[in-house]
Design a protein that fits this description.
This protein is mostly helical. It has a single domain, classed as Arp2/3 complex 21 kDa subunit ARPC3 (Orthogonal Bundle). It is 71% helix and 4% strand. The protein has eight helices and four strands; from the N terminus they run H-E-E-H-H-H-H-E-E-H-H-H. A hairpin with a 2-residue loop joins strand 3 and strand 4. Helix 1 crosses helix 3, helix 3 runs antiparallel to helix 4 and helix 4 packs antiparallel against helix 5. The longest helix has 30 residues.
Length: 197
């Protein structure tokens, strides 16, 4: 393998695996909310990827996940783009890269941020979809409904994701802290030094 392509291939390969795993876990729903929205572990691989590769690559993978999800579900284009932007917000988990419990902090940041972006997109793009009542409360504005709906969605998704990420943090600490990537960088520097000699 060409050593110059290795740094490019590694995140692309991990991203493809994370994207596929996120789609599969997204279809394995714990349950679906009455007004739409699934509770699943689909965000866990995206959060792990962002922790390993940072905010930029994590947001790009989240965007790809949202676009792929929209295509697979045949969502109306603006709604699909709203979801794609919301999924890109999961990349903020990369802010906690290298921290011991960064996976949990990343989930506590990324999932509510995704919910906030999704609520804004829903209120702007689908105001006519606002039901009369939600959770036995009268919904006067689309903003109220989408804020309440996405808050409930975020809380229900945080529980299984935090549990899964806590278990992963205990079992695969080196992987989540991206220590293997640091070792690869050291290995590449050693090879470069040998070539110079």
């Amino acid at each position: 393998m060409d050593m110059e392509s290795y740094p490019v291939l590694r995140p692309v390969t991990e991203g493809a695996v994370a994207l596929a795993l996120a789609q599969v876990l997204g279809y394995a729903r714990v349950f679906t909310l009455p007004e739409g929205g699934d509770v699943s572990l689909g965000m866990v691989p995206l959060i792990v990827f962002a922790l390993r590769w940072g905010v930029g690559k994590g947001a790009l993978l989240g965007l790809a996940y949202g676009i792929l999800g929209a295509l697979l579900r045949w969502d109306w284009i603006p709604i699909g783009l709203g979801r794609a932007l919301a999924c890109a917000a999961l990349g903020t988990a990369g802010l906690f890269r290298g921290r011991r419990w960064g996976a949990l902090y990343g989930a506590l940041t990324g999932i509510p941020l995704r919910a906030a972006v999704q609520a804004a997109a829903g209120a702007l793009l689908l105001p006519e979809e606002t039901p009369e009542r939600f959770l036995n409360l009268r919904m006067n504005t689309p903003e109220t409904f989408y804020a309440l709906h996405e808050l409930l969605w975020a809380c229900l998704n945080l529980l299984p994701c935090l549990l899964a990420l806590a278990l992963l943090s205990l079992a695969f600490r080196r992987f989540l802290l991206a220590e293997d990537l640091a070792e690869d960088e050291d290995w590449e520097e050693t090879d470069d030094e040998k070539e110079e000699e």
